[in-house]
Amino acid sequence: xxxxxxSLYLVxxxxxxxxxxxxxxxxxxxxxxxxxxxxxxxxxxxxKHLELSKPLQSYHIFNEHKAAEKLVERMKRGExxxxxxxxxxxxxxDPGFLLVREVIAAxxxxxxxxxxxxxxxxxxxxxxxxxxxxxxxxxxxxKGRKTRIDALAEETRTIILYESxxxxxxxxxxxSEAFGPMRQACVSRELTKLHEENIRGSLSELxxxxxxxxxxxxxxxxxxxxxxxxEAKD
Length: 234
Ligand code: SAM
Prior knowledge:
The protein is α/β, with parallel strands linked by helices. The chain is built from nine helices and ten strands. It starts with 5 loop residues before the first strand and ends with a helix. S-adenosylmethionine is lined by residues 15-16, 85, 87-89, 92-94, 117-119, 162-164, 188, 190-193, 218-220.
């Protein structure tokens, strides 16, 4: 593996259930010189579980620009790296994009392994059309939030949003206001974990549900795109 022409591997890690690590992810983590981690403590726990001992180096959003330059220099000298995030696929609403861009610009090879990510199971579980969809990641918290939501009201593809537990209700209410309360949606909570749930219904039904049920944990919101027929009925 050390003769591999690949300088940087992006290695997806479980979003809850540790059994979701792939055989190839383990093989690559074993083979690289250094593992770059969003949080060395979190990734250290995973490596311990995999009985894998490897140098871990911190790589997070706060030092991404500077770190990327230095890492590319090391890659040019032949070091091979794997990047992992706390959970899921690196660079998907997580650090990684800048490093990938720098590595490609330097003429080096990057390879992202397929593996866990939250938005794919959420989209498929929703039962909403998935032939065309738009992944929006996290909505802006303040500036630009309303503009983004208003623009999404015209989106005809299924919309996927990442959300944190304490903003769930606010987001559902704002979506209901902008898209209409009858728009179909699904909230996927705690995917792959013991208390996984996928709650499907109109935005108003979801708001009602979460008034009396737990909103805790990690959340993906999937919303149907605008359809002429559906909006006419609303
Ligand atoms: N890189 C990750 C991926 O590939 O999905 C996403 C990282 S982002 C910082 C974290 C967000 O992903 C959470 O706020 C939530 O929206 C979503 N997420 C991660 N794990 C999840 C899970 N087990 N169930 C539902 N959503 C999850």
